Amino acid sequence: MTYVDGFILAVPKDKIDAYRALAQLGGEVWMEHGALSYVECTGDDVPFGELTSFPRSVQAKDDEIVIFSWITYESREQRDKINKLVMDDPRLSKQMDQMPFDGKRMIYGGFNVLLQM
Fold this sequence. Notes:
32% helix; Alpha-Beta Plaits
């Protein structure tokens, strides 16, 4: 069954174009190395909740937009292999010091698919 990496992060609104360029490159690299799909979404209807919410989860500031993204793979084993290739790919490794967001506030993790329709 499919395996999914999920991400939530906050990007300053004035850096969304730089983030889009990085995401485009990232998507190309992941797909070249074998990912099944690569999706990046900008928050549109993500209210700031009283206790929990997407914005709270990444400590989003007023001038930031929440990004929700995911990458799918054939399996956990394929994900681990692909991610190693991606992390060693010079096209992305040289970008790591210039990320247009605070990586310390990014939430990410790998997930087994429970149900897919």
